[in-house]
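# step 3/5: fold
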Amino acid sequence: MATVELTTANFDEVTGKDGIVLVDFWASWCGPCVRFAPVYDRSSAKHGEIVFGKVDTEAQPELAAKFDIRSIPTIMAIRDGVIVFSQAGALPESALESLIEQVEALDMEDVRKQLAAHNH
């Protein structure tokens, strides 16, 4: 599946659904972002059931601000509408694949219980 451009107009709709959405916060002037892009694209081709989104932080500064993105690239993993991972830095392909496996293996009922306990 090709990557999806995420904007303020479609971000909540795309990330609020059931399933996994990976988000790459990037900018065209960012060398590590440009080098990470082919890794991200290859992974998106392997995992058709996952939405691979990209947020251009130059074009979407309000999204970058909303998620306190201070360094790019930043990779965020969202499952069933819940942010379960967010980390700055380009990931090697093996680490991105490992992240996907870990997000797929999450017990979302347990994640929601932990979130509820943390918020009380």
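# step 4/5: annotate
The beta strands are 4-5, 20-26, 51-56, 74-79, 82-88.
# step 5/5: archive (pending)
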